[in-house]
């Protein structure tokens, strides 16, 4: 039992940024966060599961979309592209040299990108990795914290292909059409109006309270 707790502590230190991450550049930060595999999970849904780190609160949930609120009251919007995962479609991203930060990601056979653009007085983060994407508007001094939180979720995202086979069915074409543009970078053209539409569509997820996250679980990663 003590050995299990010790292993869990080490994993938590790696994924939540309790190690010395403050002095790292964004490039170094993503290397540190994504180069190590994680088996943490504390939220399980139909066909997929992932880890929500302490400090984030799940506030909306609808099929393959969700949103979270962080300690700075920033809202993160999370999209999961189960169709691209199911079809093993490649991720194609060309770094944007006009962005505040832009990087193509390739770790542990999982690919994606991070692009950050300044929009008015905030910074718009688009973090796509492992067939999931998280977007958020944050202040400049909150970027590193957001990257740590987003990395924790996206690197822990795992799919159950057997379950997805039973629920995707005829929805493949419609779902692919709806998510194709979501996974592509919006860049400096992004606006918060998009998120107001999101909230109106999905509303509040009543199955989750303020502080009732499940206990962290270590599980064997699926192939």
Give me some keywords for this one.
223 residues; alpha+beta; 7-stranded antiparallel β-sheet; 3-stranded antiparallel β-sheet; 7 helices; 12 strands; disordered N terminus; disordered C terminus
Structural summary, described in words:
- The protein is globular.
- Helix 2 (26-35) packs parallel to helix 4.
- The strands form 3 sheets. It has a 7-stranded antiparallel sheet with strand order 4-5-6-10-9-8-7, sandwiched between helices. A 3-stranded antiparallel sheet has the order 2-3-11.
- It has helices at residues 2-16, 26-35, 82-87, 143-156, 161-168, 172-183, 193-202; strands spanning 40-41, 43-45, 48-50, 57-62, 65-69, 75-80, 101-107, 110-119, 122-129, 132-138, 158-159, 217-218.
- The longest helix has 15 residues, at 2-16.
- The protein is α+β, with helices and mostly antiparallel strands and 223 residues long.
- The two termini are 27 Å apart.
- The model is unreliable at 1-18 and 202-223 (pLDDT under 50).
- Strand 8 (110-119) and strand 9 form a beta hairpin.
- The chain has 7 helices and 12 strands.
- Helices cover 34% and strands 27% of the residues.
Reconstruct the topology from this structure.
Blueprint (H helix, E strand, L loop, with lengths): L1 H15 L9 H10 L4 E2 L1 E3 L2 E3 L6 E6 L2 E5 L5 E6 L1 H6 L13 E7 L2 E10 L2 E8 L2 E7 L4 H14 L1 E2 L1 H8 L3 H12 L9 H10 L14 E2 L5
Antiparallel strand pairs: 1-12, 2-3, 3-11, 4-5, 5-6, 6-10, 7-8, 8-9, 9-10
List SSEs in N-to-C order: HHEEEEEEHEEEEHEHHHE
Mean pLDDT: 77
- Helix coverage percent: 25-40%
Poorly predicted tracts of residues: 1-18, 202-223
Q: How many helices does DSSP assign?
A: 7
Q: What is the CA–CA distance across the termini? A: 27 Å
